[in-house]
Amino acid sequence: GAGGWSPLVSNKYQWLQIDLGERTEITAVATQGGYGSSDWVTNYFLMFSDSGQNWKQYRQEESIWAFSGNTNADSVVYYKLQHSIKARFLRFVPLDWNPNGRIGMRIEVYGCTYRSEVVDFDGKSCLIYTFNQKFMSALKDVISLKFKTMQSDGILLHREGQNGDHITLELIKGKLSLLINLGDTKTHPSNAQINITLGSLLDDQHWHSVLIEHFNNQVNFTVDKHTHHFHAKGEFSYLDLDYELSFGGIPAPGKSGTLSRRNFHGCFENIYYNGVNIIDLARRR
Questions:
Q1: 259 pLDDT tier (thresholds 50, 70, 90)
Q2: In this protein, which residues make up the domain named Laminin G (predicted)?
Q3: CATH of domain 118-284
Q4: Among the listed residues 90, 156, 94, 92, the one whose alpha carbon sits nearest the alpha carbon of residue 123
């Protein structure tokens, strides 16, 4: 009715779904009860999705977050999200409501347009970015991207040098593994290989963010909100790497003994290398 949303039956199986029309960055939500009624929701979950099929619950402080709702029909309860959601679809799921009334909600969603560049990989392709060494600092590298996939294995990123040095970011059984290999063990006998694993169940067809920052010999590896900081004991500064990055697979078969490794099958979003928008470059050829 005109007073807001009130389902015919008040139980824990009801939900109100919104289609925002496109993927949007959501920063806050607000609720009221049904207009001029004794119907309001006191607690609710918030769920979000890109497709309307595959849903994720809003989490805060490492657990599913129950939002405190209303204590009467007309006061607005506004909640600024601790971290924004990027989604097209939202679901408000009532948990509890006024015991002397029914489920009743009026809602507002706050946010802004989310700008993104997405590229799809079919498991047989890769995107190669070759850059000019004159304009690059050897002391600093920052790579960021988002990915989503249903496959538990695949190469996300690879960079290789003439002497066998290489950096590989690979999804293995739903976890992300960052492998830094210093090919010449005679020159670098200690710490010849670094292998850091982060995340789990990353093959859930939801977006996950990755950030790799390398300053001198300090490396920060972040997956979603979890960061692993490590020092490469000086050798990482001397990695002999080509001025070429490959996303989604390893271009030359057999390099680095990687014949058994699978190419990535899924989507990448907003790939940046030192501030350069790689997907935009590819679109513009």
A1: very low
A2: 118-285
A3: 2.60.120.200
A4: 156
